[in-house]
Every structure is written in C-alpha cells, then in structure tokens.
Write a structure and sequence with these properties.
By secondary structure, the chain is an all-alpha fold. The chain has helices spanning about 1-15, 20-25, 30-40, 45-55, 65-70, 80-90, 105, 110-115, 120-140. The protein has 9 helices and no strands.
C-alpha cells in the first residue's frame, strides 16, 4: 500500500524537523497501525494477521512490535512464506505448551527461516529427544 508508506515517511519527516509534539512523535506508530487496521484494501501485514488467525484459531488484531518485525524483514520473506511458516509451526509438536504462539514469535527472522521448510516427522521427534539427552548428558560432565 503505497499511500500508507508515503504517509508514514511524511510523519517521520515532520518528526525529524521537530514539527510534532512529543506526544505526537511517540504515537506515530500507533496512528499508522490504526490506519492500517481500518483500510478498505488490506495491507500484507493485515493479510498475514488474518491468515495467522485462521490457522491458529486466535484473534490477534496487530501490535506495534509484530508490525515492525513484519516490515523490517519484508525483503527477506514474502507474505506466502510467512504464512507457510505459521502452517509449519502448528505441526511442531515440540512447541505445544512450550511457546506462546503469537505473530511476534512467527515474525522473528530466525523462526520464519527455521519453520519455512520444516516438516514434522518421527525422525524430527527423535532428533529433538537426542538433542535434549545430549544437553542433559553434557550438563552432567564435570570439569577436571
């Protein structure tokens, strides 16, 4: 959405030139998020949130941190790749109860990259168990 990014650049220029109050400066990201959530044509970030909610059954409407992560790493991962990561994360049984599933978790570049081509299999389960056993064994080794 070109208009939204142009507006965001304009607001940041006003901020840089000192033409906004401190309160207005602090709320720029919030204003942009509210605009993005209410646009008729959905932006990629809102499309991602819709897909995330459909896949996970949650009801996230967006937050500043996940929006920032989405747009910072936009050049690395496409919308489709991020949605694929969500689908793959859902299949990882290791994460059940271990991680709070949120857009912020998915949008961290290391998690998006990790789960983009992730396929859960019994060998994945065995590898994680072996890793956990190796870690516990290593922690029992004493220094000489």
């Amino acid at each position: 959405m070109k208009e939204l990014s142009a507006l965001e650049r304009l607001l940041n220029k006003l901020k840089d030139f000192g033409l906004l109050t401190n309160r207005e400066e602090a709320e720029i990201d919030t204003y942009i998020l509210i605009l993005e959530q209410n646009l008729r044509e959905k932006t990629d970030y809102i499309k991602f949130l819709d897909a995330f909610n459909n896949i996970t059954g949650k009801k996230y409407s967006g937050d500043l941190e996940s929006r920032k992560l989405f747009y910072e790493k936009e050049s690395f991962f496409s919308l489709e790749e991020r949605i694929k990561s969500v689908e793959n994360i859902i299949t990882d049984k290791f994460l059940d109860g271990n991680v709070t599933m949120s857009p912020k978790f998915v949008l961290r570049p290391e998690n998006t990259a990790k789960y983009l081509n992730f396929i859960y299999t019994e060998s994945t389960k065995l590898n994680k168990n072996a890793t956990n056993n190796n870690i516990s064994t290593m922690s029992k080794v004493q220094d000489f």
